What we know:
Chain A contains 23 helices and 15 strands. With 488 residues, chain A is an alpha+beta fold. In chain A, strands 1, 2, 3, 4, 7 and 14 form a 6-stranded mixed β-sheet that branches. A 3-stranded antiparallel β-sheet of chain A has the order 11-8-12. Helix content of chain A is 46%, strand content 12%. In chain B, 73% of the residues lie in helices and 0% in strands. Chain B has 13 helices and no strands. The mean pLDDT of chain B is 89.
Amino acid sequence: MKKSTIVYLMVVSLAVALAFGTFTAHAWTPDEQALLDKAKEIASDNAGVWSLEEAAKPYRGVTLKILADAATEADAPQNYDSEFIKMTGIKVLWEQNPWDEHRSKMFMDFAAGTGIYDLVWVPFDDMASVTGKGYVQPVDKFMLNPKLLDPNINLDDYSEALWKYTSWYGKPAKPYGFPCENPTMILWYRKDLFDNPTEKANFKKTYRYELQVPKNFEQYNHIAEFFTRKKGERLAGEVLDRDFYGVGQSGKRHWASVCEWMNLASTWGGPTWGGTLDENDDVVINRPENVEALEYWISLFRFSPPGSVDWYWDLKSTAFQKNIVAMALAWNDQSYEIEDPEKSEVAGKMGYDLIPIQKYPVSHFGSWSWTIPTKAKNPDAAWLYLQWVNSRDIALKCALEGAMPSRKYVFDSPEISAIPFMPATKKALDHAFPRPVHRPEWGEMGEILALYLTKAHRMEMTAQEALDKVAVEWQRLLGTSIVHPPKT
Amino acid sequence: MGLLIPSSGQDKEKTVLKRKYTGYLLLLPTLALLAFLSLVPFIYAFNLSLRDLNLRIPRLAGQFVGVDNFRYLMREDSEFWHSMGITVLFLVVVVSIEFVAGFALALLLNREFKGKRIVVSLAVIPMMIAPVAVGLMWRVALNYELGIVTYLLKSIGIPMKEALLGTSATALATLMVIDIWQWTPFIFLIILAGLHSLPKEPYEAAQVDGASKWKIFRLVTLPLLKPLIIIALLLRVIDAFKTFDQVYILTGGGPGNATDLVCMFAYRTNFKIWNLGYGAAVVLVIFLVILIVTAFFYAVTQKKEEEVV
């Protein structure tokens, strides 16, 4: 390769990275890197001399209580806890609750300072709150304790963005745990329909280009329109016995609509904090690109089942399972349900890819962090369990049972790579962006956004009016500025 | 038992006093428990409502803010007043319809016929289902693509362009229908029990006097049932005001804020946003409204009783 070509490629790569690289934009700061380096140094010194059995000796007989979400990620480790108990003599008791109930218990326990739980799963939406309130403790002291640090902790395994947004909080930021449940949004599409020769030919005749996985939202719109058919029409050679829709969207006043729309806002106008706040936390939710993205999202409901105005994420996957939708922006962890032949009419017929790009490549991700409460009665033993359950070996075993991986090692394993939606998930993480979870006000901000998104798509107000309203309400909460003065 | 055998006038007085205080003493544990269970949480909530405690926001750590929460609630929180408005609309509509339908059903079934027990048992089934289960059941039934309700409505020719819970125009009405379905049996059961317990003499006297059926209903049945009707309405009004489960499961307060009944608003403020200071103010205002309604019904009952005496 010519030298000039190499230089050209380097310049282009750098430009792309600067323009799109949400991942690289959040690299470790020098302080954070120093902490990680120190931990790696200790891990290296511990190699060959440290053992979990020995480290756990002082805590033999202790019982750890864990409060977790009712999710596969929490079900899976329990199948292997017996190994930990056998090695350490530390017992482990799990308590799992659905999302709302879990958060109630978590906040109540933290506020009361009972110290009942030694480990608590915290949604990253609440991490700024629980760290700011001092409800949970940083784990750097455990990471830097030679007696407690497993040499095989492999800290390089964690995607920076994922780990940082999930578990690093405070100024300067400190780690409070590791990711434990981290769904990412990807594109679901009906591969069998996209590959059907008749459909391909008809699509080309109508839109004058090949039917393919949509690369941008113009194509996404065309494909959504193309596949929307009435009962009695033909789809892939078969007469439809019910209406079929090009796209499935979540329209309920719920976080489902917030997360879905944030993908559009971010790809239209840039992914910082889901396209809602700028680097100074000034409000940009009503920027022109977001208004356009909201208008686009609302217009897509023409090709989405009429009932989808009341959907959150569970009904989206049900619609796929029942074979009435061709495409959607969806959470990767729900893909297991779609690929389950006992539950789904479309198992084995699905394709997965990155979310189409309007301007910036994006993927909205959600996450939960393992944390050790400040009042935990057995913090050292909790750290040992935390370290063990996140080890490569256990993480891989859990991923094979349906838990979403956090470690690169697990993503790269041949067994995981073979799962149909995992390659797309891994790629999506390169463009992963979070919602503005760094703000403790985010809980209320999200509720306000959900309200006005539904008001806009129910045509109670225009997209501009809705986002202006959100901007004003957010400014009241945050006390920062609105970059684009409300027009309405 | 010497206490009960007075030997002189002074002793007699003492004994009366002791009897009087023994009664109070025996009541004391129950009164103390009641006070503890109702007053302590109330005082705690009141104290909380004067603070800015938010479990999510570190700077809002529970400082005393006086009546700021109430001031904001009363003067500036349009969302709260919207919730209050639709809650009043909801309860007026559902309680009225439940009352008329329940009463009519009770009158209809207030006679002996074969299979009466089975019919009555079937009629009260909706009331026996837990509200959460009702919500989940209707959520499936109302699903636009797969639900039985949508299917039936379409099959009888009703055009269904959108999900019943998906539009502001129909979502609240749908919640009302579900509430009426669930709670009409409650009114029916109370009125039916009341009808069974009515004395026969006034009816016989009215018949002897040649009163028409309508007159007997208006001048005999209704007045005799009035105390029961008031209690039934009071319970339903309080319960309808507190409707939460179905809203939480079926609509989450949406679309927009079309079904954001006041308890859903209070839940979101307290347990989603974790603004406990403001949330306590919201809850106290709801409590106050229910207290006023209860006092009104109580006053009406007392008045009727006085009239009877």
